Amino acid sequence: MKKVIIKSEFSLFKFEELDDVLKILVSKAIDATDNSYSPYSNFKVGAALQLEDGTIVIGANQENAAFSVTMCAERSAIFNAQSNHPDLAITTIAIAAKNVNGLVHIPISPCGSCRQVILEMEQKYKRNIKILLCGSEGIYVINSIKDLLPLSFVDESMR
Ligand code: THU
User: Fold this and answer.
1) CA–CA gap between residue 159 and residue 154 (Å, rounded)
2) Which residues does a 6 A CB cutoff place in the pocket of ligand 1?
3) Coil, strand, or helix at residue 144?
4) Domain total in the chain
5) Which terminal CB of the chain, N or C, has fewer other CB atoms within 10 Å?
6) pTM (2 decimals)?
């Protein structure tokens, strides 16, 4: 028997420490929470992603009375980007969330389905996607979804 340890890492930034491009992306993710349709959870999530040409695409969670139909902010943004700019790689995604008290203190992290979709985008464009998780305590900067999704299922797994 051999024990295997998988490490993952992120960096914690204060908003002021981010470079100007990342500051804009974080601000856009926070603004995107205003586009949330979340009458059931009252939890507003916004995502802002940047494409390789600098284009920013936003998304917000969209809920439904049939709860399982709900779409997360991250996938709203990614599917929007893929539908409009299928040839442009995603370089960065910022995610922000507000509960009834405002911006969450500890950042939220993407759900399992969104992690799988972000992984697919890394595989499609063969480059890492930087992930910024935004809370009032700070911004978690993660260099690749692989840090959030170890032992992942990818297309090579089927060959
Ligand atoms: N939600 C997101 O949009 N992204 C996440 O990463 C986690 C959860 C949404 C889905 C639902 O509308 C609400 O937050 C509560 O789960």
Assistant:
1) 10
2) 38, 41, 43, 45, 61, 63, 70, 72-74, 108, 110-111, 114
3) coil
4) 1
5) N
6) 0.97
